[in-house]
Amino acid sequence: xxxxxxxSGQVSIEFLGMTPLILLTLVLVxxxxxxxxxxxxxxxxxxxxxxxxTAASPGGARQAACSAAGRxxxxxxxxxxxxxxxxxxxxxxxxxxxxxxVLFPGLIAFPARVxxxxxxxxxxxx
Length: 126
Hints:
- By secondary structure, this protein is α+β, with helices and mostly antiparallel strands.
- About 50% of the residues lie in helices and about 25% in strands.
- The protein has one domain.
- The chain has 3 helices and 3 strands, in the order αααβββ.
- A 3-stranded antiparallel beta sheet has the order 1-2-3.
- Strand 2 and strand 3 (about 110-120) form a beta hairpin.
């Protein structure tokens, strides 16, 4: 016969055993959120850059306007390693490349980069 209450504390022991797995799952979900957010930022920055690039005249002015517009809305954690480039004539394209942060934006980042690409027809000058 078992004594009443012989397994008291079992839930606490099981919870302590599961705590590392729960924390690891939360960390992985958070990292997936950061990857998705970085993709969203790269796409939005490319859209803004190509919009500014189509309004600017071709050459150095286009690249400067494109780069400034692509970086304008990025927070400091993503802006530091961002690369923005524009090109094309008639059909302007913008490419934005961002590093994905590891757990906390601004501290360290993965070596792999996320790319955003956008294109638009150049506006007619009157």
